Amino acid sequence: MWRYLKAAFLAGVDVPGLGHLPVNAMMAAAFGIVGFAEPALWLLGLGVEASVLFALTTNERFRKVVDSRHLESFDQDAESKRRALITTLPPELQRRLIELTRVCGQVTEVNQQTDEFLVETNRDALQRLEWVYLKLLVARNNLTSMRAAEPEGTLSARVADLESGLGSPSTSESLRQSKVATLAILKERLANVHRRKETLDEIDSDLARIEAQVQLLLENAAMQGKPTTISSDIELACNLASSHLYGDSGAAIADLDQTFTKKITE
């Protein structure tokens, strides 16, 4: 309701050379100024303004215009943020996204032959799949850029050497304690390497699954000639809710997720 009230208060006309003139707000300001000379005009102005706001906010056509402008603004802002995320990806990952978007576009073109509601529903579902795919690409890029200073083999060898040296009778207690602490650190680093590799495997599997699913959607739509409702619900191996996956892009991902959810529920 606040969105409609704000739009109604700022309602006006576009004047060449002057731009948009908020006639309603200007009228309210005029009543406020002249009211200092004649206080009764404040009450009159309040009544007029209340009538105008009520008439506009309850007008179905006016509400549709406001909703349309709101969605247009949302789409432009979201697209700008999405493109900023894409620019953070290396060329090979950008190419994968471009290819998926191309196939999704083909699916939408095939679906044009059906009713408008199904076309819009399927377009939204494909957009959600593309968004999940982009998040997976951002997560993959972040993890691959965080390579360990030492490869897994080197870390494993250092762990084995330390473990074998702990049993030496010539090792002093202080040296032994230092080696034990170092061993714990190396094991934790090795565990991080293993977790990172496992997460990358999950991401690669999810990326391949989405690519295969979109290709299947295109094939089914082309062969059957009768598009069906597309579902964007997909059970991923990777937990994309973990904000640490995205590194410096985490805030942008969270913001777009929130905005995207808001658009769906409105």
Q: What is the C-alpha radius of gyration, as a whole number of Å?
A: 30 Å
Determine the N-to-C terminus distance. Answer: 12 Å
Number of strands: 2
Indicate the mean pLDDT.
75
Shape: flat
> How much helix is in the residues?
over 70%
Percent of sequence in beta strands: under 5%
- Quaternary structure state of the chains depicted: single chain
Biggest sheet, open or closed, and with what strands and sense?
Answer: 2 strands, antiparallel
Compact summary:
It is built from 9 helices and 2 strands; from the N terminus they run αββαααααααα.
Describe this structure in words.
The protein has 266 residues and is mostly helical. Helices cover 74% and strands 2% of the residues. It has helices at 2-9, 23-34, 40-57, 60-87, 91-111, 116-144, 152-165, 173-224, 250-265, and strands spanning 13-15, 19-21. The protein has a two-stranded antiparallel sheet. Helix 7 packs antiparallel against helix 8. Residues 70-74 have low confidence and may be disordered.
Notable traits:
266 residues, mainly alpha, two-stranded antiparallel ribbon, 9 helices, 2 strands, 74% helix, flat
Question: In terms of topology, how is this protein built?
Answer:
Layout: H1 2-9, E1 13-15, E2 19-21, H2 23-34, H3 40-57, H4 60-87, H5 91-111, H6 116-144, H7 152-165, H8 173-224, H9 250-265
Helix pairs in contact: 1-3, 2-3, 4-9, 5-6, 5-8, 6-8, 7-8
